[in-house]
Design a protein that fits this description.
The structure is a single chain. By secondary structure, this protein is α+β, with helices and mostly antiparallel strands. Helix content is 32%, strand content 18%. The chain is built from 19 helices and 22 strands. It has a five-stranded antiparallel β-sheet with strand order 1-2-5-4-13. Strands 3-16-17-12-11 form a five-stranded antiparallel β-sheet. β18, α16 and β19 form a beta-alpha-beta unit. 51% of the residues are buried. The structure holds siroheme and iron/sulfur cluster. Siroheme binds next to β1 and β2.
């Protein structure tokens, strides 16, 4: 089926032999000699929503004591648009407390992650998550991942409609194998088990992960251009006319390998709302048939498009879609962050967006955030109030649909448990993102989540010095160049190179439409702060009114030429005008 003739990568072999993602997972789970699972199974378990990890803080100590690494499992939910009921929240909280490390981690793709689950309890944990009517199928692996949908409490009917399209697409793209249900939920094996027909993915699934997001202008909170496939809602008089379709976004790169690079998606055209699944299937089948299956670092859709050309890609997609795509419609994004605090909704309802630093919901010192949210969920657990928890694509939490009479109580709980950072924090702190990185992420080269509060404080001190405390600057930290906090879309970003050393990237816009560029390579904190100090002085003195930091850096010509492809916003806009 693949259009490439090069030798397939080892992971392709594992998928082929896996009997539709079963592998030897049952045997691995039963093996009591080790806390790990077999190498092949570490690839397959991703399709079930889990990664094997080890505590990297303890690696050396355990090696010295001749112990195997401290293995545990990260589990990620599939949660289109990131919406859960209070009862589901309580279920997930109980899972984190009983089986995980006592924290709930909200991700940059509106999902929950649990860390620190040991092999012996993996099955019970997945069963408990499923008991909350949430699953983890295809949350990771070479398939479509969690489908994101923009969070817009002010347009709740429209949001509901778009969330519904995202949920339907997520379901449509779910693998058909029953492996998950057999292994984790004890579903009985039936004839044909291990040979299920996968109409969209085929026998070997996709060459690589695949990501989809729905954005609702003027907000680009999902960073739609960072996705393999994106839908931009086109709305007229409150009515959803359809979606502009974008394809070929992706951020992962590898240090020192210029053939890998972050890339923003291209605008393909427009489809009616009832054609969402069909166009997604056409794009995915094209990537399935032509994506690179020999080099996993060159296997995302962005490389398929760049290697063969956008016109070729459009032709293949339209052939599978059965019709030419209609011209894209005009749209305009204002920003890609979240809006914090209360906003008034309709029908005597209001919505509260809370800042959750680096997405980590935990009880730490006086900051008892897990307890606060548990209390709110308990009050509304019967579902009568209609309150919902919505995870934002920027690791924050929206408590949506709060009846007016319930507001005061929520305010009290939020204040009591010090969950009210949104009231006092600088825009820099409110909008910053950091990926998980150490100690759980196997690929981390430097700290990110654990470094965020401290680093933000140091940058705030510099901003103060230049009278810029209120500047709304987007800061993003990643522990390696894979880009999980979407750092290439940060006005200021640190990308880990080694412990305590980062590439300093600068100059993205705040609409998610322009990638940043490398400013200083492999620098430590002192060098980063010195560089920022100089640039803030320049910015404070010479910015025009309301000019964003990233835009200023580009205008002032401070930044070097990009060393990888940058699709500037002007190009996006001109392709739109041409259409
Ligand atoms: Fe990611 C791998 C965490 C969003 C690009 N990502 C990982 C792993 C699983 C490490 C691994 O492979 O062993 C990380 C687990 C860390 C841990 O201990 O929990 C990890 N990624 C995350 C999360 C939790 C970051 C966060 O702090 O919120 C996000 C989970 C999203 C979700 O719910 O599904 C997360 N990852 C992203 C994003 C942002 C996005 O999708 O909007 C990206 C950039 C967009 C993209 O995909 O291009 C991203 N993650 C990667 C890559 C690079 C992929 C590539 O094309 O090269 C890897 C490495 C890989 O796949 O080989 C990776
Ligand atoms: Fe890990 Fe790198 Fe992703 Fe951070 S960006 S979570 S360090 S893979």
């Amino acid at each position: 089926m693949s259009a490439t003739t090069a030798t397939p990568s080892a992971v392709e072999g594992i998928k082929t032999r896996s009997r539709r993602l079963r592998g030897t997972l049952l045997e691995s789970l039963a093996n009591e000699v080790t806390g790990a699972i077999s190498d092949d199974d570490t690839q397959l378990i991703k399709f079930h929503g889990s990664y094997m990890q080890d505590d990297r803080d303890l690696r050396e100590e355990r090696r010295a004591a001749k112990l195997e690494p401290d293995y545990s499992f990260m589990i990620r939910t599939r949660l289109p648009g990131g919406v859960v009921t209070p009862r589901q929240w309580l279920g997930l909280d109980a899972v984190a407390t009983r089986f995980g490390n006592g924290t709930l981690r909200l991700t940059t793709r509106q999902a929950f992650q649990f860390h620190g689950v040991i092999k012996r309890e993996l099955k019970a944990t997945l069963q408990a998550i499923n008991a909350a009517l949430i699953d983890t199928v295809a949350a990771c692996g070479d398939v479509n991942r969690n489908v994101m949908a923009g969070v817009n409490p002010l347009q709740s009917a429209l949001h509901a409609r778009i969330h519904d399209d995202a949920a339907k697409l997520s379901e449509f793209l779910k693998p058909k194998t029953r492996a998950y249900y057999e292994i984790w939920l004890d579903e009985e094996k039936v004839a044909g088990s291990g040979e299920e027909y996968e109409p969209i993915y085929g026998e070997v699934y996709l060459p690589r992960k695949f990501k989809v997001a729905f954005a609702v202008p003027p907000y680009n909170d999902v960073d739609v251009f960072a996705n393999d496939l994106g839908f931009i809602a086109i709305v007229e008089n409150g009515e959803l006319l359809g979606y502009n379709v974008v394809a070929g976004g992706g951020l992962g790169a590898t240090h020192g390998e210029p053939a890998t690079y972050p890339r923003l998606a291209d605008l393909l055209g427009f489809v009616a709302p009832d054609r969402v699944n069909a166009i997604a299937e056409a794009v995915i089948r094209t990537q399935r048939d032509f994506g690179n299956r020999s080099d996993r670092k060159h296997a995302r859709l962005k490389y398929t498009i760049d290697d063969r050309g956008l016109d070729w890609f459009r032709g293949e997609v339209e052939r599978r879609f059965g019709a030419p795509l209609r011209p894209a419609r005009p749209f305009r994004f204002e920003h890609n962050g979240d809006r914090f605090g209360w906003v008034e909704g309709t029908n005597s309802r209001a919505h509260l967006t809370l800042r959750i630093e680096a997405g980590r919901v935990a009880d730490r010192g006086e900051h008892t955030h897990l307890t606060a949210l548990r209390r709110i969920a308990q009050i509304h657990a019967d579902g009568n109030s209609g309150l919902q928890f919505r995870l934002t694509p920027n690791q924050n939490l929206l408590i949506a649909n709060v009846p007016n009479e319930g507001r005061a109580e929520i305010d009290e709980i939020v204040a009591e448990h010090r969950l009210d950072l949104y009231r006092s924090a600088t825009p820099l702190r409110l909008n910053a993102l950091a990926c998980v990185a150490l100690p759980t992420c196997a690929l981390a080269m430097a700290e990110a989540e654990r470094y965020l509060p401290d680093f933000t404080g140091k940058v705030e001190a510099l901003l103060d010095r230049h009278g810029l405390r209120d500047a709304r600057i987007h800061l993003r930290l990643s522990g390696c160049p894979n880009g999980c906090s979407r750092p290439y879309l940060g006005e200021i970003a640190l990308i880990g190179k080694a412990p305590g050393r980062y590439n300093l990237m600068l100059g993205a816009d705040t609409r998610g439409q322009r990638l940043n560029r490398l400013h200083r390579e492999n620098v430590d904190e002192a060098q980063i702060l010195a560089a920022l100090d100089e640039l803030f002085a320049h910015y404070a003195a010479e910015r025009t009114r309301a000019e964003a930091f990233g835009d200023f850096l580009v205008r002032a010509g401070v930044l070097a030429e990009a060393h990888y492809k940058v699709i500037p916003v002007t190009l996006l806009e001109s392709s739109l005008t041409a259409a």
